[in-house]
Amino acid sequence: MSLNTAVLTTGEWQAKRDRYVARGVSNGNRSIAARGEGALVYDIDGRRFIDFAGAIGTLNVGHSHPKVVEAVKQQADQLIHPGFNVMMYQAYLELAEKLCRLTPGDHEKKAIFLNSGAEAVENAVKIARKYTKRQAVVSFTRGFHGRTNMTMSMTSKVKPYKFGFGPFAPEVYQAPFPYYYRKPLGMSDERYDEMVIQAFDDFFVSAVAPETVACVVMEPVQGEGGFIIPSKRFVQHVAAFCKKHGIVFVADEIQTGFARTGKYFAVEHFDVVPDLVTVSKSLAAGVPLSGVVGSAEMLDAAAPGELGGTYAGSPLGCVAALAVLDIIEEEGLNKRSEEIGKVIEDKALAWKETYQKIGEVRRLGAMAAIEIVKDQDTREPDKAAAAAIAKYANEHGLLLLTAGINGNIIRFLTPLVITDELLHEGLDIIEEALQTELD
């Protein structure tokens, strides 16, 4: 029962937020959510918002999908949480089997479930260290892996994620990652690939010796870093390098997974089979759940009791995830992802012809982004303009997020169940923002 049953206004709830919630928690939109359905969210005043944020990529199957709601309700009626370490339950085992079959590769695989994306990354590191008996961890420039001490150490962006929170975990190194929009002027993509690949190899001479590295952790498409898409050549080179040197190759699919890029996992676009895959976000449609899936030999390196957690792999999360996997297949969301992405890309490319501040449009499936710059010639990042566009959108009924090391990326993470009508309506709001903020 609520401590306060009185009906409060939005302003009164906002005052409570300011009084009782830590300042370090950010709020891109200060409305008070009341309910959600598909690609729509309604606040307590009845105001409607089209969702292009998806709880930062968590809601590929949308808000409160009926199949997810029903699965969670049924599970809550039967059993909420015995603790898998205390007594097993069917949903955990069934989900482990399904994900072992869905993740890339036909080798023998196993899975472990946890709570958050950062926990998944932490456990992938633990597994790799246990398996290889090595300590060093390599991530990439502009990468984001979480807010725990280890995952902050693996993350590039200093503010707001790392500033003032050190000291960080030792033996963590960040390798170069391609960014084609930022390559030297006049250089071909092929030549740039050669340059970055050489820099990657040189990194293991100048920064850390490969025989000391337990794992290389890569987002197949960088999320918080700005939706940066590497080439197939680069990803395949990294995977081959890892295999040559006995390094565990981890694909961080926390934001890219479950149909966001038009495939179940983004790494599939690169024809690479990772040793381990970390999953979370859209795995369970908003119910906290994450996991590590991959080589059975690697996951079995840890002894009983060395992995796990009190709430890890809760029954509610597991049944929600099983429903999500059914929805992706039944509703054809991999195909729908590509359709959504194409609509966004076409509209954004048209905007680029009109607005000098739109520097690049990029996407893989529906994981799409617009890079906002001061002008197309200098390509200087324009964080203020990106923030103004997002602010306008949020004030006019569209949940929209920025990203990127410089905060100058507008990113699209709309639920994949969005209708064409709502998709175009949301894009129209962005166009209004461009006209208002960039003219």
UniProtKB/TrEMBL annotation:
Gene3D superfamilies registered for this protein in UniProt: Aspartate Aminotransferase, domain 1, Type I PLP-dependent aspartate aminotransferase-like (Major domain)
Residues of the signal peptide: none
GO biological process, one term: gamma-aminobutyric acid metabolic process
Superkingdom of source: Bacteria
Pathway recorded for this protein: Amino-acid degradation; 4-aminobutanoate degradation
E.C. code: 2.6.1.19, 2.6.1.22
PROSITE patterns per record: AA_TRANSFER_CLASS_3 (PS00600)
Named cofactor requirement(s): pyridoxal 5'-phosphate
Keyword terms, alphabetized: Aminotransferase, Pyridoxal phosphate, Transferase
Reaction(s) catalysed (UniProt annotation): 4-aminobutanoate + 2-oxoglutarate = succinate semialdehyde + L-glutamate; (S)-3-amino-2-methylpropanoate + 2-oxoglutarate = 2-methyl-3-oxopropanoate + L-glutamate
Any one Pfam family match given in the protein's UniProt record, by short name: Aminotran_3
GO MF annotations in UniProt: (S)-3-amino-2-methylpropionate transaminase activity; 4-aminobutyrate:2-oxoglutarate transaminase activity; identical protein binding; pyridoxal phosphate binding
Family: Belongs to the class-III pyridoxal-phosphate-dependent aminotransferase family.
Alphabetized PANTHER family for the sequence: AMINOTRANSFERASE CLASS III (PTHR11986), LEUCINE_METHIONINE RACEMASE (PTHR11986:SF58)
Protein name, as recorded: (S)-3-amino-2-methylpropionate transaminase
